[in-house]
Design brief:
By secondary structure, this protein is mainly beta. Helix content is 11%, strand content 32%. It contains two helices and eleven strands; from the N terminus they run ααβββββββββββ.
């Protein structure tokens, strides 16, 4: 009798605990909230505010220009970049300069070159080209180019460009030969509109 009583007690205890529970615990409720649908922004809309353009358009990966959601860095020479007002710039080339004036002479320790910058004014108003400036850095192992102005064929960034007009301007530089010929060209723009994105073009001095 003792043996049967102990067995019955053990069976009762097992029934009251988890011994006989074969059901699986309920899955925890998800704490992830459904994300709200992202608002679509037309980055080519010239009436888009600077704040909205910076948030949605300035650093978005893509194959277009800055104005339609493309990147603003690592742009190859020949690729255009557009600010939200429609002003578009393209570094056409960087070429070693050899057409010296009789009063000029090359620096044997530096690579002296001329950058050709295409400016296409697709905005609705004229643009002062003095808003633009160019900075050149070596892309291999550092170095910053010094700016200058070679006499022959010079077309500096100055004056105004009318709406719907494009022009090719020049910017002359010298980079120490130890820094190589691969360069990064940054086009800076200073305006009352406060455009904070300065496109960077990468290429090689030919």
């Amino acid at each position: 009798m003792r043996t049967r009583t102990a067995a019955a007690a053990l069976l009762l205890a097992c029934t009251l605990t988890a011994c006989g529970n074969t059901s699986e615990p309920a899955a925890p409720k998800s704490t992830v909230k459904a994300s709200a649908p992202e608002q679509e922004v037309d980055c080519s809309d010239t009436s888009l505010s600077q704040a909205d353009w910076m948030e949605h358009c300035s650093e978005v990966d893509g194959s277009g220009t800055g104005g339609d959601g493309g990147p603003s860095t690592d742009l190859p020479f020949g690729k255009a970049y557009a600010w939200p007002d429609g002003l578009e710039v393209t570094v056409v080339e960087a070429k070693v300069f050899t057409d010296w004036d009789e009063y000029e002479e090359p620096d044997p320790k530096a690579t002296e070159f001329r950058i050709r910058l295409k400016v296409d004014n697709k905005s609705e108003t004229s643009v002062d080209l003095s808003e633009l400036s160019i900075m050149v850095d070596g892309a291999t192992n550092g170095g910053t180019a010094s700016s200058g102005s070679f006499t022959k064929g010079s077309a500096p960034l100055e004056g105004r460009i009318a709406s719907g007009v494009s022009a090719v301007k020049t910017d002359d530089n010298a980079l120490e030969k130890r820094y190589g010929k691969d360069i990064v060209v940054t086009v800076q723009r200073a305006t009352d509109d406060g455009f904070e994105v300065f496109p960077e073009f990468t290429g090689t001095i030919k």
